[in-house]
Amino acid sequence: MFWKGKNCCTTTSQTYQQGDVTCVTHGGCTDGADVTLCTVQDGGHQWPGGDTLPFLGKKSDNIIATDALWTFVAAHPRATQQ
C-alpha cells in the first residue's frame, strides 16, 4: 500500500467490520499520521451509503463513506508548519 510505505507506518489493525465492508488502519506513522483503507468485498464503482446506480456494479450500505471520511478528517487535522 503506497501511503502506508510513504508514511513509514509501523502498526496495523482492523478498525471496522460490518457485512461486506472491512477497514484496516495503519498507525505509528510519520508525524502522527494514520492511513486507513476501507474495502467493499466485490464492490463496484459506487459510493458506499450513497445513491445506487445499477450500471456501476455492487454498492454497499454497510458503511456510509461520506460519514467515515468526515470522521477520519476531523480526527486528523492538518499539521501546521512553523
Lay out the secondary structure.
Elements lengths: L1 H5 L4 E8 L2 E7 L7 E6 L24 H11 L7
Antiparallel strand pairs: 1-2, 2-3
Structural class: alpha+beta
Give start-end ranges of low-pLDDT stretches.
none
Let me know the largest β-sheet. 3 strands, antiparallel
Distance between the termini: 30 Å
Question: What do you see in this structure?
Answer:
It is a single chain. The longest helix is centred in the last third of the chain and has 11 residues, at 65-75. The protein has two helices and three strands. It has a three-stranded antiparallel beta sheet, with no helix packed on it. The protein has one domain. The protein is of the alpha+beta class. It starts with a helix and ends in a 7-residue tail after the last helix. It has helices at residues 2-6, 65-75, and strands at residues 11-18, 21-27, 35-40.
Name some characteristics of this structure.
single chain, 82 residues, alpha+beta, 3 strands
In short:
The chain contains two helices and three strands, in the order αβββα.
